[in-house]
């Protein structure tokens, strides 16, 4: 991950292609965790707090919840969260827009 998304903006003219990576970088700077999960599928960030696990997936859209569903079936005490560009849904898996996540 680059130290700041500004470097990416300055070096690229393909913002739409890089936007998911920039979203991941902004979330990483907010939560400051080094953990992720990769075993046949990937969870972008794993954050531990109060004996619970927050599994965070970063996606431009909310169309693919498969990874979070698999992870919550495999482990107990998981709070799944998907951070998207602009969607907000509160259900078994919370979906939150990036701007709102960053303001927490």
Automatic annotation (TrEMBL):
Keywords: ATP-binding, Nucleotide-binding. One of its GO terms (molecular function) is ATP binding. This is ATP-binding protein. It comes from the Archaea. It comes from Ferroplasma acidiphilum.
């Amino acid at each position: 991950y680059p130290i700041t998304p500004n470097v990416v903006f300055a070096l690229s003219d393909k913002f739409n292609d890089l936007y998911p990576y920039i979203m991941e970088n902004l979330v990483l700077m907010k939560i400051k965790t080094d953990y992720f999960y990769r075993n046949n599928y990937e969870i972008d960030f794993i954050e531990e707090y109060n004996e619970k696990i927050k599994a965070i997936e970063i996606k431009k859209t909310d169309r693919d919840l498969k990874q979070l569903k698999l992870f919550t079936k495999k482990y107990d005490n998981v709070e799944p969260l998907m951070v998207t560009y602009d969607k907000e849904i509160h259900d078994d898996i919370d979906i939150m827009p990036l701007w709102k996540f960053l303001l927490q």
